[in-house]
Amino acid sequence: MKTRDLVTRLAADLKPVESGAVSQQLYRALVVGFSGSTALLVALYGIRSDMPQLILTTMFWARLAFPLAVVFSATRLAERLGRPGAQLCPAGLAIALPVAAMLLATGGVLIATPPGYRLQLVLGTTWRTTVADVVLLSLPPLATALHAMKQLAPTRLMLAGAGAGLLAGAQALIVYSLYCAEMSIPFWGVWYVLSLVLTIGLGAVLAPVWLRW
After folding, report:
1. How do residues 82-107 score in pLDDT, each as one tens digit?
2. In a domain, 3, yes or no
3. How far apart are CA 134 and CA 209, in angstroms?
4. H helices of the chain, where?
5. How many other CB atoms are found less than 10 A from the CB of residue 195?
6. Which residue in 206, 177, 205, 207 sits closest to 191, CA to CA?
7. Number of domains in the chain
């Protein structure tokens, strides 16, 4: 069989890809990842008994706004990383905005706080366990994000894994907010951001093996 005939025969069996197939793949991963992370939180720690009161406070929603913004931006980035040759700059800048806002807010609060109280704001009462808890809760969404990415066509595997790790870490932060008692902006700016850095690194390390064609 000639090469041209083979290509023609293979092309005849191709089915058009649905519009929005990449987004649908990632959205399904988000739903499954959130479900897995929430189930893990409930199984290990439960949900705070005072949550009905907490959700009525401004600081609760301010804390939740950060990971929500990161999830939104990280989803856009993951969509681009799943397409060979797609431009990353717009999505990368969108991710930088909530992180920069959090770090600026942290710096502003610390500058306005008397020196003797700054460390207390940064450490809170759960600094020893927060990062480990978030990384643990990120494992279900990281698995689903990497699985979804494998169904796409990533060519920059470590970057794709880093994007999946960022998405998973932000999902874990949203779920962790149902349990976390810390209401200090400097605490979020240090330990929440550090948690994201670690989940990004974890995704980047796993991706070359997980996403290999």
Report:
1. 888 778 888 888 899 999 999 999 99
2. no
3. 23
4. 3-12, 21-44, 51-54, 58-81, 89-112, 115-123, 127-150, 157-176, 185-187, 193-210
5. 25
6. 177
7. 1
Which domain does 197 fall in, by range? 17-210
Give per-residue pLDDT as tens, 120-138.
999 999 999 999 999 999 9
Rounded to two decimals, the pTM is: 0.87
Q: Which amino acid is at 106?
A: T
18 burial class (0-12, 13-18, 19+ CB within 10 angstroms)? exposed
Q: Return the exposure string of 20-46: e unless at least 16 CB atoms fall within 10 Å of the residue's CB, then b.
A: eebeebbeebbebbbebbbebbeeeee
The dihedral region occupied by 124, where left means phi > 0, alpha psi between -120 and 50, and beta the remainder, is left
